[in-house]
Amino acid sequence: MKILVINAGSSSLKYQLINIDDESVIAKGMCERIGIDGRIKHTAFDGREYVEEAEMKNHTEAFKYVEYALVKSDAAVLKSMSEIGAVGHRIVQGGAIFDKPELVNEDVIEKILELSELAPLHNIGSVQGIRACIECLGSELPQVVVFDNSFHNTMPPHAYMYAIPYEYYEKYAVRRYGFHGTSHKYVSAKCAEVMGRDISELKLITCHLGNGSSITAVDGGKCIDTSMGFTPLDGLIMGTRSGSLDPSVVTFLGEKEGISYKEMSELLNKKSGYLGVSGISNDDRDLQEKAAEGNERAKLAIKMLDYQIIKLIGSYAAAMNGVDAIVFTGGIGENVDVHRAAVCKGLTYLGVDFDFEKNAGLRGRIAELSKPGSKVKIYVIPTNEELSIARDTYALVSGK
Ligand code: AMP
């Protein structure tokens, strides 16, 4: 079966067409700047490309370009859209309502919209993506929604509650939700597979480090804690997000600078993190380059990330009373050896015996980076959120 995986944001629509029988990628692409001007970049499995700058007023117009790319362009891979057996959508916020993938119907769409208060940009974009698919492909084609936070729904209340008056949990469902769940689920399962062990007997810490970063404690295959919180702003320093800070910083700066809630959200989500500390860039590659030239603020931002990862790993090892393996994934986790080395240098107390030679230069492929005999194993496992969504979609539509 061919499954189209859609990841729609407020102004973008990423897609991957996956053949679930052999799990290969048939084509992938992205529409950007929807509602602004518009651009599609599409790549077929054999490297053929279709790129076009074209006005896309909304997600439905963008999806028409996806259809064209898949069926009619020079990089087409289908004779007709009817070859697609199901569509899987990534949804960022499923709240506590959705703890597993669901078939799309009006009731599900309504609930996703209700949850958009918790992730306004993301959930509304997702629903626009779903509606575009229904409009272009018809309501007969099965569509499945896979929630980014549902892997974290196994967290116990003592991990997900905030110590604020309980009424706000009851009234507004203010609690930790966690994100990147599809990625943490995928790499933890893959890690157990690579170790040749049953996940139910493993304590794992999965580090998804990219432009957005989060770390999860996975005990016996279930998430027991994760660093992102009520929103994806919490936890580690990220590309442009602050990560955790004393909430008094928010009230103090708000008063001193006369910053509104909306501006504060913009400041913490878009102007902080790597970008805010370094004043250079949100991208790790840029910071590594500047750090190598001696830029102190680039060095500081990089060091902050490594230090925070070490602290979180320590706290999750404590929370699980042990750890068998630590996994690095995401753009930084998969590709940046100096971060893995800096972090693992600080984990010898746990019994990590890191293979610095094997680590050097390693990019984007599965590898064990701990030496034989290391008490805690270290792995790099490239994440594959699209495949994970395609698998969940297939499981639901095929009943397997
Ligand atoms: P992600 O959000 O997972 O795509 O990760 C993006 C981050 O990974 C950026 O900070 C990049 O600088 C960093 N990175 C480093 N090397 C690579 C690479 N080869 N490919 C993609 N991202 C990379």
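Residues 2-147 form a domain with the Nucleotidyltransferase; domain 5 fold (CATH 3.30.420.40).
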